[in-house]
Design brief:
It is a single chain. By secondary structure, this protein is of the alpha+beta class. It folds into 2 domains: 36-260, NADH Oxidase, CATH 3.40.109.10; 308-511, NADH Oxidase, CATH 3.40.109.10. It is built from 16 helices and 18 strands. The chain has helices at 8-15, 74-85, 150-160, 165-169, 180-187, 191-209, 225-232, 278-285, 308-312, 332-338, 352-363, 418-424, 429-433, 444-451, 454-476, 489-496, and strands at 45-47, 87-93, 96-101, 112-118, 127-132, 137-141, 172-179, 215-217, 239-249, 318-320, 350-351, 383-389, 392-393, 398-403, 408-414, 436-443, 480-484, 502-511. Helix 1 (8-15) packs antiparallel against helix 8 (278-285), helix 3 (150-160) runs antiparallel to helix 7 (225-232) and helix 5 (180-187) packs across helix 6 (191-209). It starts with 7 loop residues before the first helix and ends with a strand. The mean pLDDT is 90. The structure holds flavin mononucleotide. The site of flavin mononucleotide has 19 residues, from helix 6 and strand 17.
Length: 514
């Protein structure tokens, strides 16, 4: 093992890299495929399907559908849950129906579940619920040994987040969890990466959609894991809470930016583990423990402008993009309903303006006064953005570094990289036929220094969230998009000429659909 590795996150990343010599198609045991939905037999159930804005008499005008204006109700929650991760497509497969969702998922395995802690809401008794995606209903769960009085639930969540102020102000908190087995069944130990990317995509829908109903969803990744998992009755060997998202009325959602950035317990180093224990070892090491929670505030960012791209590429020539974000807000419902991952691109070019629209929607930091509409990433500075341009009219083919703060694309390597991108994406044509490919990387040792092994979770959640915004903007512009979670990690470093400590986190392909 590389002796520069100094954390479990780096160790896990290294051991789960795809390389030409370790990737081989293995046959799947379909009899072991985990169930797509969680059932709570005997649980009190609240229907939400009859509160959706669809009618058996024909299409309704989704664009003009009235907003909840920040008032909680069963109808508002029915829509929020639907446009976050409801069923938007059904396919019949041998032996079962397959339910496609509002958010994409690697291999359509849907490891993300949503729980809801609620109080003071008409028609929904206070308590904790699991959202049953297929039936679009809430199943009330009764945590073992817990007396579910209104405020007590919220106090548990408040304590677990070390007093995050959004919890106390909120009456409805969504908790996104992941069931690792749903993904590891197919992807083995590398599944942790896809579970977090998937959950980031789901959160991306929630964060983009909530303002349409007059809410803002505040993402919290820092919490004492055991306390939240116990509250939801999750088995830590199989599943875990990843993001806590209190909903607040958008005109009363300002709680400051510094909360929620907690680091995991300071283990330092890593333990060699057997292949089959890699994922669980990362889950354990990236947890925040009550015993060390007092020390959990993350270190300030000492790297300043020293991040790889920002410092090394300062003098490179670039193009400054000035397209506004696409006017997605009014048509977000239709966009989410229409979204499907593109299965093939034509290879035809898109315009520089379209590229600008897409990146602007993914990152726009600059909507002064409308902070609830600016995407709230845990720490976007942990990620570097690279754009591999295959076919964008008005832009040379090549590899570019994108700086969201200045909207500059800096040309790093001139040339046609379609073949190399195709190869590193495990031979998927999506990567060579796309008009451009966005790659997110992270200086992993630096991220771990700030957030402990928890950093690994945060960078994948943020990359999934950015990926979802790219997907939504692409669909709104009549383009196509697809995530790529399987890639030869080190080939990405070779393509971009970046050091090994820069870990490839995620790839998104965008272009003209075939
Ligand atoms: C994290 C992630 C990784 C993905 N990786 C790939 C991939 O490598 N190749 C691919 O063709 N599709 C990939 N997809 C797209 C999924 O296959 C797709 O989301 C899933 O089949 C559900 O279909 P839908 O997105 O059309 O709803 C990925 C999606 C996500 C969210």
């Amino acid at each position: 093992m590389d002796n520069t590795i100094s954390s479990t996150a780096e160790y896990y990343h290294e051991r789960t890299k795809y390389r030409p010599d370790n990737i081989s198609g293995h046959s799947l045991d379909w009899s072991k495929k985990p169930p797509q939905f969680k059932e709570y037999p005997g649980a009190e159930s609240i229907r939400l399907d009859d509160k959706l804005p669809f009618s058996s008499e024909g299409p309704v005008n989704l664009r003009d559908f009235p907003s909840a204006n920040g008032e909680l109700s069963a109808e508002a929650l029915a829509r929020l849950l639907f446009f976050t991760n409801g069923v938007t497509g059904i396919m019949q497969q041998p032996g079962e129906y397959h339910y496609y969702r509002a958010a994409p998922s690697a291999g359509a395995l849907y490891p993300t579940d949503i729980y809801l802690a609620i109080r003071n809401t008409p028609d929904i008794p206070s308590g904790i619920y699991n959202f049953h995606v297929r039936d679009h209903r809430l199943q009330r769960i009764a945590p073992v040994g817990f007396l579910p009085a209104d405020d007590e639930l919220f106090e548990v969540l408040s304590k677990a987040t070390l007093g995050h102020p959004a919890i106390a102000k909120s009456d409805a908190i969504l908790i996104l969890s992941t069931i690792f087995l749903r993904s590891s069944w197919r992807y083995g130990q590398r599944a942790y990466r896809r579970c977090m990317l998937d959950t980031g995509h789901v959160f991306g829908n929630l964060a983009a959609y909530a303002p349409l109903e007059g809410f803002a969803a505040t993402p919290i990744a820092g919490f004492v894991d055991k306390e939240v998992n116990d509250l939801l009755g999750l088995d830590p060997a199989k599943e875990g809470a990843c993001v806590i998202a209190p909903l607040l009325a958008k005109d009363d959602c300002d709680v400051g930016d510094d909360f929620g950035l907690l680091r995991s317990s300071p283990y330092g180093g890593y333990e060699e583990v057997k292949e089959e224990n890699l994922l669980n070892s990362l889950v354990t090491r990236s947890a925040i423990q009550r015993s060390s929670a007092a020390l959990a505030r993350a270190l300030p960012d000492s790297s300043g402008t020293g991040r790889y791209g920002a410092s090394k590429l300062k003098s490179y020539s670039g193009v400054t993009l000035d397209s506004p974000p696409p006017p997605l807000h009014e048509e977000l419902r239709e966009t989410i309903l229409r979204r499907r991952s593109t299965r093939a691109f034509s290879g035809n070019p898109i315009t520089l303006e379209q590229l600008g629209h897409l990146l602007e929607y993914a990152y726009r930091y600059d909507l002064a006064g409308e902070s609830y509409e600016t995407p709230r990433y845990f720490d976007p500075l942990l990620l570097e953005t690279w754009v591999i341009v295959h076919a964008v009219s008005g832009l040379q083919q090549g590899t570019y570094y994108y700086s969201p703060a200045t909207r500059e694309l800096k040309l790093v390597g001139k040339g046609d990289y379609r073949q190399q991108t195709h190869y590193l994406a495990l031979g998927q044509e999506l990567a060579s036929d796309a008009a451009f490919v966005v790659i997110h990387t992270c200086d992993l040792p630096a991220a771990v220094e700030r957030f402990g092994d928890r950093a690994y979770r945060m960078i994948h959640l943020d990359a999934g969230h950015i990926g979802q915004r790219l997907n939504l903007a692409a669909i709104a512009l009549e383009l196509g998009a697809s995530g790529i979670g399987g890639f030869f990690d080190e080939e990405v470093n070779s393509l971009l000429f970046i050091p090994e400590r820069e870990a490839c986190v995620y790839i998104t392909c965008i272009g003209d659909p075939a």
